[in-house]
Amino acid sequence: xxxxxxxxxxxxxxxxxxxxxxLPQVAERLxxxxxxxxxxxxxxxxxxxxxxxxxxxAARAQQKSESAQLGRLIKSDPPAAEKxxxxxxxxxxxxxxxxxxxxxxEGELTQLLLGIPNLPHGSVPVGGSAAxxxxxRYGSAPKPQFAFAPLEHFELGEKLGILDFxxxxxxxxxxxxxxxxxxxxxERALISFMLDLHTSRGYRxxxxxxxxxxxxxxxxxxxPKFAQDVFRTVALDEKGELKRELFLIPTAEVPVTNYHRQExxxxxxxxxxxxxxxxxxxxxxxxxxxxxxxxIRQHQFQKVELVKFAAPETSYDELEKLxxxxxxxxxxxxxxxxxxxxxxxxxxxxxxxxxxxxxWLPGQDAYRxxxxxxxxxxxxxxxxxxxxxxxxxxxxxxxxxxNGSGLAVGRTVVAIxxxxxxxxxSVRIPEALQPYMxxxxxxxx
RNA sequence: GGAGAGAUGGCCGAGUUGGUCGAAGGCGCCUGACUCGAAAUCAGGUAUACCCGGAAGGGUAUCGGGGGUUCGAAUCCCUCUCUCUCCGCCA
Length: 445
Prior knowledge:
The protein is an alpha+beta fold. Helices cover 38% and strands 21% of the residues. It contains twelve helices and 18 strands. The protein has helices spanning 16-21, 23-31, 40-76, 78-114, 153-160, 165-172, 182-200, 214-219, 253-258, 315-332, 379-384, 409-419; strands at residues 134-138, 163-164, 178-179, 204-206, 211-212, 232-236, 242-248, 263-266, 272-281, 300-310, 337-341, 353-361, 366-375, 386-389, 397-398, 400-408, 427-428, 442-443. The strands form five sheets. Strands 1-11-12-13-16-10-9-4 form an eight-stranded mixed β-sheet. Strands 5-7-6 form a three-stranded antiparallel β-sheet. Strand 6 and strand 7 form a beta hairpin. The longest helix has 37 residues, at 40-76. It is elongated and about 100 Å long. The model is unreliable at 1-12 (pLDDT under 50).
């Protein structure tokens, strides 16, 4: 039913039954993401699992009813009871063996399913790389013109004394930075500005834990695929052995999406919208040599994240709204940007559809991603078991989860520095932000 | 960190000499009756997942998680997690 014509938005990922019963269709749609996904083992394992369940459950049903009979026999006919007990012993062992094998099969199957990315939505353009992403629109602010050669943000930041990359490296290593003075204040102002904007537009503010359990990381799909991209923390016991492990969140998406893990939400209250500030920690494995200078790619940065839990019928409308809410930050800051629709080849593994917001950076002479807004459909919800009851008495269904940055704070600082720079090296503060800066209108050396 | 108590269905709350307990009772919710309508009252229904089946329906699992004892565990044993109370420490 998930693949009925005209209903592509219902396409679900990771649902074993759907995948197993629609192998060719699923494989076809996954092929748009690129080669290398083989579903045959999934089909084979699914069949083996089904068969084993039937056998084991039949044996268990027999065991159960005869076991009850044994209970009665013990009182009425002890010798017969002893005889039956001996038979049941054997049956019990068969059942246990079947259970073990089933557990093994299902573990293997889960590992396979975890490795399969989400199915792209029908409206996502097919393409192999970022070059095939589709331009959706530009924001209202025009591209700024400069009568001088605009500097990159790190040059400005160092000259203004508000970004200290050297000391960041001294204390923590590469890709760590101190913001100081007006720079630190600017970050704080941006966070408040963004949260105030979003909460005034219907989001509930949430300040989440910054460390999460391995379960939470799996629920949103960070594990096991991206284990190398995250920081893991451990607590040791007296003997120096692992007592507990927690992960530094790579985005507030992780704690906030897991906020409703294993819950059945009231359908009448959907969509639920949250705006969460958090620092984000990323190991950035595999990006050596990329954006080595400046704030663009740090191991730690701050972000305000928007998260929604929506009914499947409305999730794509909510994606448009969420994207517009993220855009609104750039609109108010009067920064030039464009909205891109990611193609199948550039789409994140968990996402069914993603819009990237790319802000113009005159110092780099390039558009750079400052927000990524995605609909994950029920891909995350299935793992995290987040459901909703459409109406009282009805069956629970999986919700659709969405999220997007609103926005990445560090990159917003970059955009402000580069777009609002003056010939003398000073930087104006966008009007919308001035109330949050104690009225400051300009950062000067 | 030390001492103790607890974790049962949407919620509250029985059940711990192991057997027919998916689990009494209450609340909530749904359906019907009564009513012009509502409230109150009465009757019935009311978990989730998986497997078989076209369906009706049937089967299996789940009483915080995991493991064990047993023919059989919500009930016994071990372990982990979480919550609460008291003491200590601490931003």
